[in-house]
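pinned: reference chain
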Amino acid sequence: MIRRVAAAFVMAFALHTGVAAQDTNDGPTASQIAAARNQADRVVEAAKAADVFENATVTDIPAVRHRQSGLRCLLIGDQGADSLRADPVPGLPRGDDVSCASYLGPLEFTLYFTRYPDQPSAEDDMDLAVGAILRRLPDAKPHTGELPIASSDLGEPLWAGFDIVVSGREMFTFVAVQKHGPWMVKVRATGPRNEAEAISTLASLLVVRAPD
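pinned: its C-alpha coordinates
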Protein backbone atom coordinates (compact mmCIF):
# COMPACT_ATOMS: atom_id res chain seq x y z
CA MET A 1 0.00 0.00 0.00
CA ILE A 2 2.67 2.52 1.04
CA ARG A 3 4.70 1.73 -2.09
CA ARG A 4 1.69 2.64 -4.23
CA VAL A 5 1.31 5.87 -2.27
CA ALA A 6 5.00 6.62 -2.83
CA ALA A 7 4.62 6.10 -6.57
CA ALA A 8 1.64 8.44 -6.59
CA PHE A 9 3.63 11.11 -4.81
CA VAL A 10 6.51 10.78 -7.28
CA MET A 11 4.03 11.69 -10.02
CA ALA A 12 2.59 14.46 -7.88
CA PHE A 13 6.04 15.99 -7.37
CA ALA A 14 6.48 15.96 -11.14
CA LEU A 15 3.14 17.70 -11.57
CA HIS A 16 4.18 20.32 -9.00
CA THR A 17 7.13 21.23 -11.20
CA GLY A 18 5.31 20.88 -14.51
CA VAL A 19 7.45 17.94 -15.60
CA ALA A 20 4.58 15.58 -16.23
CA ALA A 21 1.76 17.99 -17.01
CA GLN A 22 2.08 17.40 -20.73
CA ASP A 23 1.98 13.63 -20.28
CA THR A 24 -1.26 13.30 -18.34
CA ASN A 25 -4.88 14.34 -18.64
CA ASP A 26 -5.65 13.13 -15.13
CA GLY A 27 -4.64 16.19 -13.15
CA PRO A 28 -6.47 17.29 -10.00
CA THR A 29 -9.83 19.01 -10.23
CA ALA A 30 -10.44 22.59 -9.10
CA SER A 31 -12.32 21.33 -6.04
CA GLN A 32 -9.42 19.04 -5.09
CA ILE A 33 -6.95 21.92 -5.35
CA ALA A 34 -9.25 24.16 -3.31
CA ALA A 35 -9.51 21.51 -0.59
CA ALA A 36 -5.72 21.17 -0.51
CA ARG A 37 -5.30 24.96 -0.25
CA ASN A 38 -7.76 25.02 2.64
CA GLN A 39 -5.79 22.27 4.37
CA ALA A 40 -2.52 24.21 3.96
CA ASP A 41 -4.19 27.32 5.39
CA ARG A 42 -5.34 25.32 8.43
CA VAL A 43 -1.82 23.97 9.05
CA VAL A 44 -0.30 27.47 8.89
CA GLU A 45 -3.00 28.86 11.16
CA ALA A 46 -2.58 26.04 13.70
CA ALA A 47 1.14 26.86 13.93
CA LYS A 48 0.46 30.61 14.19
CA ALA A 49 3.06 30.94 11.46
CA ALA A 50 1.58 33.15 8.75
CA ASP A 51 4.59 35.46 9.10
CA VAL A 52 6.93 32.53 8.34
CA PHE A 53 4.99 30.32 5.89
CA GLU A 54 2.64 31.11 3.01
CA ASN A 55 0.28 28.83 1.10
CA ALA A 56 2.02 27.42 -1.99
CA THR A 57 -0.54 24.80 -3.06
CA VAL A 58 -0.88 24.33 -6.82
CA THR A 59 -2.26 20.81 -7.01
CA ASP A 60 -4.08 18.38 -4.73
CA ILE A 61 -1.16 18.05 -2.29
CA PRO A 62 -1.14 20.89 0.27
CA ALA A 63 2.09 22.89 0.18
CA VAL A 64 3.57 25.82 2.05
CA ARG A 65 6.52 28.04 1.22
CA HIS A 66 8.97 29.32 3.80
CA ARG A 67 9.04 33.09 3.34
CA GLN A 68 12.65 33.72 4.38
CA SER A 69 14.26 31.08 2.19
CA GLY A 70 11.71 30.56 -0.58
CA LEU A 71 11.92 26.81 0.10
CA ARG A 72 8.80 24.66 -0.04
CA CYS A 73 7.27 21.93 2.12
CA LEU A 74 4.82 19.50 0.60
CA LEU A 75 2.45 18.37 3.33
CA ILE A 76 2.22 14.71 2.37
CA GLY A 77 0.64 13.41 5.56
CA ASP A 78 -2.76 11.86 6.03
CA GLN A 79 -5.65 14.28 6.53
CA GLY A 80 -4.92 16.33 9.63
CA ALA A 81 -1.50 14.70 10.13
CA ASP A 82 0.77 17.60 9.12
CA SER A 83 2.24 20.33 11.32
CA LEU A 84 4.69 23.22 11.18
CA ARG A 85 7.20 24.49 13.72
CA ALA A 86 8.22 28.13 13.49
CA ASP A 87 8.96 29.07 17.09
CA PRO A 88 12.35 30.75 17.52
CA VAL A 89 15.20 28.69 18.88
CA PRO A 90 18.01 30.04 21.09
CA GLY A 91 20.57 32.03 19.12
CA LEU A 92 18.52 32.29 15.92
CA PRO A 93 15.82 34.75 14.86
CA ARG A 94 12.29 33.52 14.22
CA GLY A 95 12.14 31.83 10.83
CA ASP A 96 15.79 30.79 10.66
CA ASP A 97 15.14 27.26 11.97
CA VAL A 98 11.78 25.76 10.99
CA SER A 99 10.33 22.35 10.26
CA CYS A 100 7.40 20.63 8.55
CA ALA A 101 6.23 17.28 9.92
CA SER A 102 4.01 14.74 8.16
CA TYR A 103 2.62 11.35 9.17
CA LEU A 104 1.68 9.11 6.27
CA GLY A 105 0.25 5.91 7.67
CA PRO A 106 3.10 4.38 9.69
CA LEU A 107 5.72 6.67 8.11
CA GLU A 108 7.03 9.83 9.80
CA PHE A 109 8.77 12.65 7.91
CA THR A 110 10.24 15.89 9.25
CA LEU A 111 11.78 18.43 6.86
CA TYR A 112 14.00 21.17 8.33
CA PHE A 113 15.13 24.51 6.88
CA THR A 114 17.93 26.14 8.87
CA ARG A 115 20.19 29.15 8.31
CA TYR A 116 23.13 28.70 10.64
CA PRO A 117 25.20 31.79 11.56
CA ASP A 118 28.49 29.91 11.05
CA GLN A 119 27.39 28.36 7.71
CA PRO A 120 28.61 24.76 8.14
CA SER A 121 28.96 22.53 5.11
CA ALA A 122 26.39 19.88 4.21
CA GLU A 123 29.01 17.29 5.16
CA ASP A 124 29.35 18.82 8.64
CA ASP A 125 25.59 18.84 9.15
CA MET A 126 25.31 15.26 7.91
CA ASP A 127 27.99 14.14 10.37
CA LEU A 128 26.04 15.79 13.20
CA ALA A 129 22.78 14.17 12.09
CA VAL A 130 24.28 10.68 11.85
CA GLY A 131 26.04 11.14 15.18
CA ALA A 132 22.72 12.11 16.80
CA ILE A 133 21.06 8.98 15.42
CA LEU A 134 23.83 6.71 16.69
CA ARG A 135 23.88 8.32 20.13
CA ARG A 136 20.13 7.87 20.48
CA LEU A 137 20.08 4.43 18.86
CA PRO A 138 23.47 2.83 19.53
CA ASP A 139 22.35 -0.52 18.06
CA ALA A 140 21.45 1.03 14.69
CA LYS A 141 23.03 -0.78 11.74
CA PRO A 142 23.61 0.68 8.25
CA HIS A 143 20.90 -0.48 5.87
CA THR A 144 22.40 -2.92 3.37
CA GLY A 145 19.69 -3.02 0.70
CA GLU A 146 19.62 -0.69 -2.29
CA LEU A 147 17.58 2.48 -1.78
CA PRO A 148 16.11 4.78 -4.44
CA ILE A 149 17.33 8.35 -3.92
CA ALA A 150 15.93 11.36 -5.76
CA SER A 151 18.32 13.84 -7.34
CA SER A 152 18.20 17.31 -8.87
CA ASP A 153 20.55 19.58 -10.79
CA LEU A 154 22.64 19.64 -7.62
CA GLY A 155 22.84 15.85 -7.64
CA GLU A 156 21.77 13.52 -4.85
CA PRO A 157 21.62 14.81 -1.30
CA LEU A 158 23.96 13.33 1.25
CA TRP A 159 22.08 10.52 2.94
CA ALA A 160 22.24 7.58 5.31
CA GLY A 161 19.80 4.84 6.24
CA PHE A 162 19.83 2.62 9.31
CA ASP A 163 17.99 -0.51 10.40
CA ILE A 164 16.74 -0.14 13.95
CA VAL A 165 14.54 -2.01 16.41
CA VAL A 166 11.92 -0.03 18.32
CA SER A 167 9.82 -1.81 20.97
CA GLY A 168 10.57 -5.11 19.25
CA ARG A 169 9.57 -3.84 15.78
CA GLU A 170 11.96 -3.88 12.82
CA MET A 171 12.16 -0.27 11.68
CA PHE A 172 14.15 1.90 9.28
CA THR A 173 15.33 5.46 9.83
CA PHE A 174 16.71 7.79 7.16
CA VAL A 175 18.39 11.18 7.01
CA ALA A 176 19.32 13.31 4.00
CA VAL A 177 20.96 16.74 3.78
CA GLN A 178 21.49 19.22 0.96
CA LYS A 179 22.55 22.86 1.11
CA HIS A 180 20.64 25.45 -0.93
CA GLY A 181 22.46 28.77 -0.74
CA PRO A 182 22.75 29.74 2.94
CA TRP A 183 20.00 27.31 3.93
CA MET A 184 20.53 23.76 5.14
CA VAL A 185 17.73 21.42 4.10
CA LYS A 186 17.50 18.20 6.10
CA VAL A 187 14.94 15.44 6.33
CA ARG A 188 14.49 12.77 8.97
CA ALA A 189 12.14 9.88 8.23
CA THR A 190 11.25 6.68 10.05
CA GLY A 191 8.91 3.76 9.43
CA PRO A 192 8.65 -0.03 9.15
CA ARG A 193 11.74 -1.62 7.64
CA ASN A 194 9.77 -3.22 4.82
CA GLU A 195 8.88 0.31 3.66
CA ALA A 196 12.51 1.46 3.43
CA GLU A 197 12.35 2.11 -0.32
CA ALA A 198 9.20 4.21 -0.01
CA ILE A 199 10.77 6.15 2.87
CA SER A 200 13.99 6.95 1.00
CA THR A 201 12.06 7.89 -2.16
CA LEU A 202 9.71 10.33 -0.48
CA ALA A 203 12.24 11.74 1.98
CA SER A 204 14.88 12.48 -0.67
CA LEU A 205 12.20 14.04 -2.92
CA LEU A 206 11.23 16.40 -0.11
CA VAL A 207 14.83 17.60 0.06
CA VAL A 208 15.72 17.97 -3.61
CA ARG A 209 12.36 19.52 -4.57
CA ALA A 210 12.31 22.05 -1.73
CA PRO A 211 13.60 24.88 -3.99
CA ASP A 212 10.85 24.35 -6.61
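why pinned: Strands lie at 53-55, 63-66, 72-74, 82-85, 97-104, 107-114, 141-142, 158-166, 169-180, 183-192. Helices lie at 2-17, 30-46, 122-136, 196-208.
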